[in-house]
Amino acid sequence: MTLSRVAMVGAVLLGVVAGTPLAAAQSVPVPSPLPLSPVVSPPKPPVEPMPMPTVDPLVPLSADLPALGSPAPVVESVTPTTSAEATPVAAPACVPWTITTVAEGFGVLENLAFDGDGTMLLSESIPFGDGAIRTLTPSGAEGTLVSEVQSPGGIVVDGDRVVFTTGNNVMAGLWGSANGTVDAVDRDGGNRTTLTEGLSMPNGLGLLDNGDLLVTHAFGDAPGLTRIPASDPAAAATVRTDIGSANGLFIASDKVYVGNTVDRSTEVHVLDAGDLTGEVTTLTLPGGGAANAGDDLAVDADGLVYIALNGAGKVVRIDPSTGDSCEIATDLPMTSSVRFGAGAGWDPTALYTTSFDGTVHRLTPPGN
């Protein structure tokens, strides 16, 4: 839904940072019938047989009750069936992951990516000054890929270049400023170029198989999803504006996942990468949208979705097949992005997160 500027300002004043800087029942035993015993005293007439005890109709009777006077049945022991035999394989248990600090002391961190060669890329904003695309190695060495970047947002690695958004500033989005761009730089930091300009607060960034780029906009006159053709990057076009305050973006195989940030409820919209204007599947998370402040997200090889809740300080896993969700990490204030490790030195089973407080964390799954 499109937010009015007044409503959006109100959200910010309420402290919403919008993902941008600023046993089954057991059977009841059936009572055994009482034995019949005649009275043999001659002076008295025989006593009539006692009636059978009345069984409460609510108590279920076995279909194979033994006949009167027959020996008691022998109950054989039964080996319980294991859960693996009785039920199909379930989703991972909702067990918290281990949180470890990887690095800290950066400026406001909005997003991260891996170049595949052992370097983590971080989009860093500075409250008073230019931001940068920063680098981090598994050993903790910090560096700068490119400096003088105004409010960088999403990052993707496309072959020999790194592509990132600029102008991801909440005030620019609130006032509809179109000063945002999509830039590219060589992986060695040289040859920086602007691919697309005139965007309003471009936030999330994704790369389709055909080379086209997708950009999300949480605020502005038309929050939603924009497509940037690889053949003509200057011809950016709005794809859809019916998915709310679009923020997090992840492309996995034939699906595009878009998370919202300040709508009434926190949602992840699943689109067909081959038909972005077609039918949408929506996954809804517990909690209020503004309080959660959903941010960036990632998807694993099994199709499970992991989303950073910036306002709630959590990372939540969602099973799209059931809609069930699980908090895998809490007490992570202002977490803005999640990505699985890639490249030498980075654990591919672990999630790495960024935060507005300048900290990078690693979330390690149980058993690892």
From TrEMBL:
InterPro entries: 6-blade_b-propeller_TolB-like (IPR011042), SGL (IPR013658). It comes from the Bacteria. The keyword Signal applies. Residues 1-23 form the signal peptide. This is SMP-30/gluconolactonase/LRE family protein. Coiled coil: none annotated. Keywords: Signal. Residues 132-355 form the SMP-30/Gluconolactonase/LRE-like region domain.
